[in-house]
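Posting this for the archive.
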Amino acid sequence: MDYLLKKRTLYIIIFLVSVIGLAIVQYKYLEIGLNLAKVQFNRNIGNASDVIKADLSTKTQLTFLVGKALLRDSTYFKLGIDSVEDASRHFLNDFITEKLVNNGIDTDFSFELFSRDSTYYLQSPMRFNENARIAAFPIVLQGYLPELLQDRLILELKFRDLNNYFLFQLNGLTLPSLLFLAGIIMVVIWVLRTYYWQRHLITHTNEFINNLTHELKTPVFSIGLASKILNEHASDAQKPVVEIIRQQVRSLSNHIDRVLDLASLESRRKVFKLEAVNFRPYLHKLCEDFQTLGSMEKLAFTFELEPGEYWIKAEVFHLENAINNLLDNAKKYADDPIIHLKASLQKNKLFIAISDNGRGISEQDKRRIFEKYYRVTEGDLYKVKGYGLGLSYVKKVLDAMKAEISVESKNNSGTIITLKIPLCHER
């Protein structure tokens, strides 16, 4: 549990650092985008100012009307001075709006037209709140209006909350970035939750298996002890039967140990202690025991061990269990089993090939037979009892020894499973 807790903490830290780093990168990109938007806006406002200054420098209907409003002279019109001022500010507002839009600026603005000493003053129809963040861009007018008033005249354009305007302009970048970031966070959280839910489920499953197998070991031990006592008093005719019982009890005990070890391997509590060993005597004894069992169960088993020493790095108990499991499978998946085991030394490895005349394995099943709980089926029926743990255990044992396992099989043509175990030169 400490290991899982540390691993989970590490994953959470990596996730948080990654999200924060991605957010910082996105913020930096946004900052760069805002700066570029400001540069573009300043360029556009400069171009618009030049156009406005040039168009207001000559006498036109607009400049004539604005001039009369600034001078508060209504003699030329049949309207009152207030109406003249109101008309001039609206016409001037429409004129400035057109020039700004033509230069790529489409946002709210206000303006003030005033002289140096504010003797002459004209304000736009729109007025911003005094507390708003205002950016002002003054334009010093030339030509007709300043000459008419005999005074310096300034047209000041004002814009409110330009940062919001820039962000709106960058929506094509900011919104997808935020959506992608939110999507990544949601997916990673979902993956982590699923992973740790599965780990929690596996932990509880392994605890159940451990408790169950420990409970089974007591009656198995009692049966073994009783069969040993029975063997001492059995007649010559009874001893072969008693020996089968004892051998099956040992086999059952090995199965229980194998399930326990598989649970330990998956929870990483079990560490293989590999030692250099001449495996040939152990393999020979294993084959002889299986041959004895085969003679009683009416199956044909032969074995062929190449002469020499089989020095490998292994845990003998687990490797024996793995081979026993493969032999047991070869026996179960054939109607009249014919099994052959051949051991040879090739290419600096120990090859152990187990062949049978069983129903074979399809290509689809061959890719999955080493998965935990997976079992080969025929249609919707499991013809052989089991839990899909044996081959998963075999694969984990061989992986710990850095060995390989290969499967050659076709439907209705038998199966050859080959173990390729590296030889050990250090003894």
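The radius of gyration is 45 Å. Residues 197-269 form one domain.
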